[in-house]
Design brief:
With 279 residues, the protein is of the alpha+beta class. The protein contains 10 helices and 12 strands. The chain has helices spanning 7-24, 34-40, 44-47, 60-77, 85-94, 98-104, 111-122, 169-180, 207-214, 263-273, and strands spanning 27-33, 80-82, 107-109, 125-133, 136-146, 149-155, 160-166, 193-195, 218-225, 232-237, 242-247, 256-260. Strand 11 (242-247) and strand 12 (256-260) form a beta hairpin. Helix 8 crosses helix 10 (263-273).
């Protein structure tokens, strides 16, 4: 996930951002759409794990026009500065194709945009989260640079990317916890069940867990993305309780446990996935 060629610049950026976070704490950074990100960082569609749900629904022709509109939006919002605006206008008045746009535009981004693009590309470790409800799915990523610097990217089903800078692991965990348990169903800790992989089918799963799965309003999956495969946590939230199923190693499912968890235990589990002490 990291790019060695950028290490020196990244270290400087981390220092600057870390200093700012130390003074102001966890804070919103910027909001960008699928198409705006595609204009700002075209290769990120293939290189970055975050999805682009809106762009994925468009045809190639539709994308060309959407990207042209996205660039106009970025300029009008002050998120980018285009130094050759006259040339850009000429291109947009001609046919607005994506290839000519990327060839002709001389673009400078703001520090906020630069932070978002750089930090999401250069983290050696990330926590990926997918929330599923009857309304659809929402995803989020925590790009971990240190215990004092994390970039959180929440992606809505409509393709809006909400970036937040977190200065504390607990802050990042609570943002993810609100996604995993939006109704506050995590109430109390129950007895942990030790499960075997063969006992995870619909016919053989423990009855208590099976009833929770059937009644779930929110199902979430959390998995660590790193060089070494991380643990996997699946949560099932009903209107009254939340169960967490933990798999120590997704590559070789052993050490599988399931239990109802409290709000505090859920927070600890998420902090552990972020790779920090959960004290």
């Amino acid at each position: 996930m990291a790019n060695p060629e950028l290490d020196m610049e990244i270290d400087k950026l981390r220092e600057i951002v870390g200093t700012a976070l130390a003074e102001g704490g966890t804070q919103p950074l910027i909001k960008l759409t699928d198409e705006e990100l595609a204009v700002l960082d075209p290769s990120a569609i293939e290189d970055v794990v975050a999805p682009a749900p809106h762009l994925e629904t468009l045809s190639e022709e539709q994308r060309e026009w959407v990207l042209a509109t996205a660039l106009r939006s970025l300029v009008s919002r002050g998120a980018v500065d285009v130094t050759n605006i006259a040339e850009l206008d000429a291109v947009l008045k001609s046919d607005g194709t994506r290839s000519r746009l990327t060839a002709d535009v001389d673009m400078r981004v703001t520090p906020e945009v630069n932070m978002a693009l750089t930090l999401r590309r250069t983290a050696a470790r990330a926590l990926a989260v997918e929330q599923q409800t009857s309304a659809g799915s929402v995803t989020a990523f925590v790009f971990v640079h240190s215990a004092e610097l994390m970039l959180i990217e929440q992606v809505t089903g409509g393709g809006l990317h909400i970036f937040t800078l977190a200065s504390k692991v607990r802050d990042a965990a609570r943002i993810i916890q609100a996604l995993v348990d939006p109704f506050g169903a995590a109430d109390r800790d129950g007895k942990a069940l030790q499960l075997e992989p063969s006992a995870l089918t619909a016919a053989t799963v423990d009855k208590r867990l099976a009833s929770v799965i059937d009644a779930s309003l929110v199902v979430s999956q959390l998995i660590v993305l790193a060089d070494a495969p991380g643990p996997l946590l699946t949560t099932y939230a009903t209107g009254r309780e939340l169960w967490a199923v933990n798999v120590d190693s997704p590559q070789a499912p052993t050490g599988i446990t399931a239990q109802a968890v409290s709000e505090r235990t859920l927070e600890k589990r998420i902090m552990t996935l972020l790779g920090q002490p959960a004290g």
